[in-house]
Amino acid sequence: MGACRGRFASRTPDGFQAISAGKYDYRGYAVPSKQYSVCGGYPDALARVGQLLSQECEAVDFMDINMGCPIDLVCDKNAGSALLRQPKRMEQIVRATATALGEVPLTFKTRKGFNDGEDVAHTFLHKAGEWGAAAVTLHGRTRQQRYSRLADWDYIAQVGRNCATTGLQLVGNGDVFSYTDWNAHMGESGGHLASLMIGRGALIKPWLFTEIKEQRHWDISAGERLDLYRQFAAAGLEHWGSDSRGVESTRRFLLEWLSFTHRYVPVGLIEVLPQAMNHRPPAYRGRNELESLLGSDDPQDWLRISEMLLGPPPAPISFAPKHKSNSYASPPGGASEADMARG
Ligand SMILES: Cc1cc2nc3c(=O)[nH]c(=O)nc-3n(C[C@H](O)[C@H](O)[C@H](O)COP(=O)(O)O)c2cc1C
C-alpha cells in the first residue's frame, strides 16, 4: 500500500489506485512507498519508534502499528490483538505515536475482537481519527477465529459507516480473491470504505490487482505464471546475491511462496467462477504438464519448480512450509502459531 503525506489513500473512484500505490513516477509507474509496520504494547516504546522514524529516516510515507497479530508470542507481551482487550491502551498508543511522528501519517490494523462473540472494534474505531490515526485497517475476524469461517463484511461495512461520520478512512480486509469480491465489498460498504487490503489473494494470484483494475477474471497461462516466478527468482538473486548462499536464500523464499501459489485454480478449468478463498479445491489435471505441476500441493513438486528456475540445490533438501496449512480455514485450536499468520 502507499500513502500520501498527511493523507493515507485518496478516495478515488478507482479504489484500486488507492490501495496499490500512492505515488507514481513520470512514466506513471508506481513508486514503492517507505512504510514501517511495527508491533508493540506500550505507548512510550512506540512513540520512541515514531520519533526515530520522523527524525532519523528520510521520506517515510507512513508508520503502521499491527494491533491484530494473533500469535501468543506477541499477545503475551500485551501487543497485537491483545490490545483489543484494552482500548484505552490502544488510544494512548495512537495518541503518543501520532504526536511523535508529527507530519508522518500513522495507521494501524486490527480485528473485530479478541474472542468470538465479543466484537469490540465498533465501539471505538470511529474515534481513531480523533486520536491521530490517518487510517485504520479492519480484518473482519476475531483473534480466536484465526482463518476459520469467512471474514465478516457486514461488520466491516457497519464500522465503515461509523468511521465515515467522523471522516476516518477505514480499509476493509478479509478473503478478497477476485474483482467481484472487491466490487461486492466496496459496494456493500455504500462507499464508506476508503479501500480494501489484500493478503493471501496477493500471494496466491499476484495478478489479482490487474483483474481488479481491468474488471475481469484472467485465464492466465501456466507459462505466464512461470514467468512471474522467474521474475521473483531474478529479484531474489539481485537482492541476496548469485553465490550459493544467495541462491539458497532465494530458493527458500520461493518455496514459501509456492506453498501459496499452488492454491490457484485456472479460470479455464474452474466450474463456478470465481474461485473462493476458503475453497480447498480437489486435485485436478491442468491443460498441460506445466499447469498440473504449478497446481500440485506436493512440496517435492515445488522443489522441482525451484530447480527449473535456480538449478538443483548443492545437496538434497526437504521443505516444510512455515505456514503449514497455507492459511486455509483451520478449526479453532487446530492451527499452529505460524498458520495463524501475523495480522
Ligand atoms: C504469510 C502471511 C503473513 C502475514 N503477515 C502479516 C503482517 O506482518 N502484518 C499484518 O498486519 N498482517 C499479516 N498477515 C495477515 C494479513 O495481512 C491479513 O490480515 C489476513 O491474511 C486476512 O486477509 P486475507 O484474507 O486477504 O489474507 C499475514 C498473512 C499471511 C498469510
Automatic annotation (TrEMBL):
Its cofactor is FMN. It catalyses: 5,6-dihydrouridine(47) in tRNA + NADP(+) = uridine(47) in tRNA + NADPH + H(+); 5,6-dihydrouridine(47) in tRNA + NAD(+) = uridine(47) in tRNA + NADH + H(+); a 5,6-dihydrouridine in mRNA + NADP(+) = a uridine in mRNA + NADPH + H(+); a 5,6-dihydrouridine in mRNA + NAD(+) = a uridine in mRNA + NADH + H(+). GO terms for molecular function: flavin adenine dinucleotide binding; RNA binding; tRNA-dihydrouridine47 synthase activity. CDD domains: DUS_like_FMN (cd02801). This is tRNA-dihydrouridine(47) synthase [NAD(P)(+)]. Residues 314-343 are annotated as: Disordered. Keywords: Flavoprotein, FMN, NADP, Oxidoreductase, tRNA processing. Its EC number is 1.3.1.89. Residues 39-220 form the DUS-like FMN-binding domain. Belongs to the Dus family. Dus3 subfamily. The lineage of its organism: Eukaryota, Viridiplantae, Chlorophyta, core chlorophytes, Chlorophyceae.
